[in-house]
Structures are given as structure tokens and as C-alpha cells.
């Protein structure tokens, strides 16, 4: 186990730890010895391999998931004064990507019984300005995507799937990211596969894929490879202003070997999740995550809810675990609690999110977590 990144001598057990293998290190070193460190063979292979794994027709690697969300919104024509429905319980990237298009995030409540968008609240928030919905496959579990797709069809709305937690999450044997117009994936260090920083957009539309490829590299009409093979690499057009959202060869190389291990990674995460599930049963006030639909789950996080009659509040349990050398955390503070979004977003009645936010706690979970680590967590919870 690696030393605590934040150099806290009291911490013996981290909340997460990336699994970097010797193969990961070898391929990164190989990429570093290439003559070109961007838009090369590693990027092409990573995109191809991701298509094969997800069965998406197109995959476009980008600098991070926020870029993936932003590019998806732009490619789908989201513009100034449009409205996009997002859940209150999500990472700020969803709201930031909408605002980057000069559109307005419509922050919407989640269900009482789970962490998914409330269908009734989604319907209430649809106006003439509503153009899209961003559902989140939160913690690695498929959201209520069928219901949301029905609402989207009935109201002519685009669906952009936030798949940041969901490499290895399936719905009826179809990998998420294939259900809406695009899927947006994250390869942040805590995710099921990592490229340190990085993201991917999947789509089954050639038109959307081409648009995203242009926008990720300043709006250029030609790729780096085609520019040099044409004889005049400086000759290309900018069809519209774009961005530098490229993924480099080093991170793409790391993604290739990480993706090769995804089945093993998710199996280890599943085993660790089931171990928690088995040993934390029947504790009054501790609500365990729904594991019924486990064949479609990627086990990104194992998040419990701390409710009455448990003797400690969520924050008290967090502090007790930390006192015993165990890091835990919360995913996330709701969007409505950030001052920027109170100003720039529209927030509806978010009573369910407000309640659930004060209950949730993500226990340590990563592929190489030991039984000793988990037993320490379980012991603290059971003794509380």
C-alpha cells in the first residue's frame, strides 16, 4: 500500500488507490520514446479498443470528462439561453459544461429511494427552452435510463449520458454510452480505469463524432496525420472556433493497458463490494446500496447511507473512521450548495437530494484493497 498522499501519519487505509501495473509502466515508457507525443498510434489504438469494448461505433478520446460533456453539448447544438436538465447530486462538471455553452443548468431533484433523477421532477422542469437531459450512471449503476429516454422522446430532447463512473456498466447487455446521443467517460485516478487525467466520448453517429473530433482540436478540418501526409501540413481550415481538448500519447498508452484489465479490475471491485455487503447487513440505520442488478454494475463506489436509528450521524461516523486511520469521503456536495450555481443555474425543489446528501458515505473501494483494510472499516461501523 502506498503512503498517504496527504502525508497524514494517522492514515493507515486510503479511500482509493490507483492500480498501476508493470505493463502500464512499460507502455508509458514506450510512448515517451516516440517521435510524436500527441495524435499518434497510441491514441488511435485506445479509441479503437474502447469502441470494441463498448460496442460503440465511434469513440473520441479527450483531455477529461468535462471536455467530453462540453463537446457533446456543442456538437448537439446547445447554445445560449437553452436549458439542460441535470441532477442535483452530481459532480460540478455537468453544470460547468452547460454553462460553458452559455446555456442554463436546470438542477433537478433525485428519487427518495436511489440517487437517480426523479422522473416527476424532470417533467415539471421541462419548458420550451429545454433541449437536453444529462442523466448520471452514478456510482457505477445504470440509472433509470429507459424512463428518461421515454421523456426525452416525448419532448424532443437530447440525452447525453454521464458515464464517468461507468466503464463496465451495462443495460440489457448494451454498454452505457450507447443509449443516448453520446456517452461521456472519465479516466481520473479514482475511476475504474485511469489515464491520470482523461476522458472519452462515445456515439453511434458519424456526424456527431466528426464534429467532436474537429472541436477537440481547435476546429481544424484535418487531423495531424492527414495534414502531414497531404504535403502541406500548415494548410487546413478552421470551420468554427474549437478547443484544445486533446489526449496525448502517454495517457492514451496507459489507457490501452488499463482497458485490457477492465474485466479483472471490475471483478475485484465487485468482490470487495460483496464483502462489504455481506458483513454490513442488518445494522439498524445503515442502508446498503442496491446490489440486486449486480450483473450490470461496474462497482465504482460502495456508498452507504447513515440514518436513524444508527447512533452516529454521517459526519460523526466519518470522523470516527478517520480517527481509526481510515479515509472515506462523500460523492458529492449537491450542485445547489455551490455559490456559483445558485447564481447561474436554476434550482428547483431539491428536498430529496438535501436529505440524502447528509446520509451518504463512500467506503474505501479499489481493486487492490485488502481484507484487512475492509475488516477495519467494518469493525468501526459495527462498533459504533
UniProtKB/TrEMBL annotation:
Keyword Transferase: yes
Protein name: DegT/DnrJ/EryC1/StrS family aminotransferase
GO biological process, one term: polysaccharide biosynthetic process
Keywords: Aminotransferase, Pyridoxal phosphate, Transferase
UniProt-recorded Gene Ontology molecular function terms: pyridoxal phosphate binding; transaminase activity
UniProt superkingdom: Archaea
InterPro entries reported for this sequence: DegT/StrS_aminotransferase (IPR000653), PyrdxlP-dep_Trfase (IPR015424), PyrdxlP-dep_Trfase_major (IPR015421), PyrdxlP-dep_Trfase_small (IPR015422)
Amino acid at each position: 500500500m502506498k503512503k498517504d498522499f496527504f502525508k497524514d501519519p494517522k492514515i493507515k487505509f486510503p479511500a482509493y488507490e490507483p492500480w498501476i501495473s508493470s505493463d502500464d509502466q512499460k507502455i508509458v515508457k514506450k510512448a515517451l520514446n516516440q517521435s510524436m507525443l500527441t495524435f499518434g498510434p497510441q491514441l488511435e489504438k485506445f479509441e479503437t479498443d474502447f469502441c470494441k469494448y463498448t460496442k460503440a461505433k465511434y469513440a473520441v478520446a479527450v483531455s477529461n470528462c468535462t471536455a467530453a460533456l462540453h463537446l457533446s453539448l456543442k456538437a448537439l447544438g446547445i447554445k445560449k439561453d437553452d436549458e439542460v436538465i441535470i441532477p442535483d447530486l452530481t459532480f460540478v462538471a455537468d453544470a460547468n459544461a452547460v454553462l460553458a455553452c452559455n446555456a442554463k443548468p436546470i438542477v433537478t431533484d433525485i428519487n427518495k429511494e436511489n440517487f437517480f433523477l426523479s422522473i416527476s421532477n424532470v417533467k415539471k422542469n421541462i419548458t420550451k427552452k429545454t433541449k437536453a437531459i444529462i442523466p448520471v450512471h452514478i456510482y457505477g449503476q445504470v440509472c433509470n435510463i429507459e424512463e428518461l429516454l421515454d421523456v426525452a422522446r416525448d419532448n424532443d430532447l437530447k440525452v447525453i449520458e454521464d458515464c464517468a463512473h461507468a466503464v463496465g456498466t451495462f443495460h440489457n447487455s448494451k454498454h452505457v454510452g450507447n443509449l443516448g446521443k453520446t456517452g461521456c467517460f472519465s479516466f481520473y485516478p479514482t475511476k475504474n480505469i485511469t489515464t491520470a487525467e482523461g476522458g472519452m466520448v462515445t456515439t453511434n453517429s458519424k456526424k456527431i463524432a466528426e464534429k467532436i473530433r474537429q472541436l477537440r482540436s481547435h476546429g481544424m478540418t484535418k487531423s495531424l496525420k492527414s495534414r502531414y501526409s497531404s504535403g502541406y501540413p500548415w494548410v487546413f481550415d478552421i470551420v468554427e472556433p474549437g478547443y484544445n481538448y486533446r489526449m496525448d500519447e502517454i495517457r492514451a498508452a496507459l489507457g490501452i493497458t488499463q482497458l485490457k484489465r477492465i474485466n479483472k479490475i471490475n471483478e475485484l471491485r465487485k468482490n470487495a463490494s460483496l464483502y462489504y455487503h455481506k458483513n454490513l447487513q442488518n445494522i439498524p440505520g445503515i442502508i446498503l446500496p442496491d446490489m440486486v442488478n449486480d450483473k450490470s454494475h461496474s462497482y465504482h463506489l460502495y456508498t452507504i447511507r447513515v440514518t436513524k436509528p444508527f447512533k452516529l450521524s454521517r459526519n460523526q461516523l466519518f470522523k470516527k473512521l478517520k480517527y481509526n486511520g481510515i479515509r472515506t469521503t462523500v460523492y458529492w456536495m449537491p450542485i445547489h450548495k455551490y455559490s456559483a450555481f445558485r447564481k447561474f443555474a436554476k434550482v428547483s425543489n431539491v428536498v430529496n437530494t438535501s436529505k440524502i446528501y447528509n446520509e451518504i458515505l463512500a467506503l474505501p473501494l479499489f481493486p487492490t484493497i485488502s481484507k484487512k483494510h475492509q475488516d477495519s472499516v467494518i469493525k468501526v461501523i459495527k462498533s459504533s
